[in-house]
Amino acid sequence: MSLAIVFSRARHGLAAPLVTVEVHIANGLPAFHLVGLPEASVKESRDRVRSALVNSGFAFPDRKITVNLAPADLPKEGGRFDLPIALGIIVASGQLAEKSIEGYEFVGELALSGEIRAIVGEIPVAMACRDAGRATLMPMINAEQAQQVPKARIYGATHLLQIHSFLQSGQALPAIPALQTEPRKQWPDLADVKGQTAAKRALEIAAAGEHNLLMLGPAGTGKSMLAQRLPAILPELTEEEALQTAALYSIAGMPRSMNDWQQRPFRQPHHTSSAVALVGGGPVPKPGEISLAHHGVLFLDELPEFPRKVLDVLREPLETGWIHISRAARQAEFPAQFQLIAALNPSPTGHHDDGRASPEQVMRYLNRISGPFLDRIELQIDVPLLPKGLLSQQGVVAESSAQVRQRVLAARATQLARQGKANARLSAAEINQHCPLSTQDAAFLEDTIHHLKLSARSYHKLIKVARTIADLQELPHIRKEHLMEALSYRALERLLSYLKG
Q1: Nearest CA among 315, 316, 326, 269 for reference residue 292
Q2: Per the database record, which ranges form the Magnesium chelatase ChlI-like catalytic domain (predicted)?
């Protein structure tokens, strides 16, 4: 047969769209044409495939070869199409039966010796092949990671000859090694933080409702310690959430270990990070820090040290849970449903009462954070200096992360049973349905909002926080005291009002 059709997968954001590799061998002067919007790395596959076939003992047709990667309007990049192109040539030249490749999809880069090298993004490929009802044959290194995809039929190989023997005569491929077990990451315990009872309470509320949290306080009061202990009190990822997270890390070339599979990611980018590093981008768009923190925590320490334009790019994903990246030739969409934890000092000197910074300097420092960005953070708390004698106090046992986590899990279970999601993810219509207020409480909250000059967005976020507080107390309805506690968590807005006033 002079025409062969082999199925493969491209990389487009988090998706793995189907690519049909059509190989036609015709009479004429020897030539190798590759069409279908291939980038430079794909065009170079002609030389890799030729050498891999010859060095593996296959006859390379001395005729006109045309390879079409369909659909033609989908950009193709990387070496992932080497393996399907080589198999297409083998089938089209009669060195392998056409029926032998039915029901399979192939991805992999070829070395000149015929060895199969790893690609990026094996988990989205495995998920897409599973949904299409076909098995996936990929490099062994990728197969180790892809075997975590439930119900996916994964085969791994290290050489082109292994695949040929498997398809032609049914010779078994090497067994996919089990993922190497590594010690599970142990998050530091909340009991290590002395004092800061109010901050721990806010951290518990943030964990229970998946709310964003901003901690304002002098240097050395434990803001970073608290943030780094948040993952220890969060519920584990569900199977579906773990798969989405692993897919994002897969296309970023950062595979997750099996032991950390259901642990929520914790990302802490440096304040010198660019907007592209945070939200993603590049010629071939890759996920940024906010997507790597999907279903997890994004911790921004020293918040005002981030450029204001960098922080403002987070406003849309904080609201929608998605980031849309558009480039001249590429567009991509990545999920970014993260929980933002931020920390900042009250002034550029690190303290608000040391006399070294004037009110104007403090205002310039705090104004690096825009109002619309701050408006999207539900919990804003003071983390003060510890009172004298607390550090040297002996025999005081604070609550451990395990104890706090039990209350968080109970509150999350209540929310999932009631509305199927965390309180922070409720829409305006769902707030009306699941977070009703009495007439008096609604009037009280609206009057307070107008007095503090807060937005309608803040109004809804305060109700969500109050709903979480009620859930932690296992109460079916929101009470006025829950609203008052939620209003108390607006520290930075109160400070800015004071400085302006």
Answers
A1: 269
A2: 189-387
Give the C-alpha separation, 420 to 393, whole Å: 44
pLDDT of residue 397: 72
Query: What pLDDT score was predicted for residue 365?
Result: 86
Q: Which amino acid is at 365?
A: Y
Q: Determine the length of the chain.
A: 501
Residue 400 CA neighbour count, 13 Å, CB half: 4
Handedness of CA 147, 150, 152, 153 (dihedral sign): positive
Q: What is the pLDDT of residues 206-256, one digit of tens each?
A: 999 999 999 998 888 889 999 999 999 999 999 999 999 999 999 998 888
Going from the C-alpha of 297 to that of each of 233, 267, 268, 290, the distances in angstroms are 12, 6, 8, 9
Res. 378: pLDDT tops 80: yes
Q: How far apart are CA 335 and CA 354, in angstroms?
A: 43
pLDDT in the model for residue 349: 83
Contacts of 307 (CB under 8 A, 6+ apart): 275
- Cβ-contact 213, 202 below 8 angstroms: yes
The three-point CA angle 474-475-478 to 5° equals 135
- Give dist(CA 72, CA 311) in Å, integer: 38
Per residue in 300-327, pLDDT (tens digit) is 999 999 998 899 999 999 999 999 988 7
* 439-446 mean pLDDT: 92
CB atoms inside a 10 Å sphere around CB 430: 16
d(CA 348, CA 303): 11
| pLDDT score for 450 | 86
Q: Is the pLDDT of residue 54 over 70?
A: yes
Whole-angstrom distance, CA of residue 337 vs CA of residue 7: 33
Look up tokens 């690096």; give the residue.
368
Show the CA angle centred on residue 430, arms to residues 429 and 434, nearest 5°. Answer: 130
